[in-house]
Amino acid sequence: MNIDLTGRQAIVCGSTKGIGKAIAVQLAASGASITLIARNESVLRGTMNDLDTSKGQTHSYLVCDFSRPLQLQEVLETYILKQKTVHILINNTGGPPPGTVSVADLDEFTDAFKAHLLCNHILAKAVIQGMKAEHYGRIINIISTSVKIPLKGLGVSNTIRGAVANWSKTLATELAPFGITVNNILPGATKTERLTGIISNKAEKTNKTQAEAEAEMLQEIPAARFGTPEELAYAATFLASPLAGYITGTNLVVDGGRTGCL
Q: pTM higher than 0.70, yes or no?
């Protein structure tokens, strides 16, 4: 299959590192023009240099802090007036800190709700009208396998990710008649800074070494390895393409077989 996204405009959130950056790089390699969104302007400028421009793509970035949804809304209103149409939206936000749900503070839920569900919704609302006009849209949410089976030690994340998944399914049903698909990618253990933090937290909580905690996690994965951000990016690029036009309202698990249900 030849995935050609030439002429398509994509927004990729959390795009200066990890899964978000890998998706931005791959979408650009397939011909899309990318608007990066993250908090650190200097890192955003550096990431721009890693994006392919061989097919005439023009890339840009927006500086936004997802702990401030109203700021995001203001920035997007100005951006959409200039850009008009966005064909692909990748909602990707760093997960809430690890911890058990029984001791979580209310602020932890509120902060996660803002950064994930509210910001996803603000982004979607900003681009939906343009997608409808083009009769082409791809909204892809990078969530977690906790949508299917809650993960130990990630209480707030389990809660908020489930809310995002159900928001996504509802949106998919509403937008399908307009040629807009809405899907979730559920990454398993992927080689990112977040995975390093989870392993460190697990080692500390269980009084084990980093290597021991990592080995225990690997034993739970049938593929016997961690995933790479690039593998998530390939899945996202397919879902963003015309080839995936009849796939909507679904969860795509990319986890090496770890999740214990279909």
A: yes
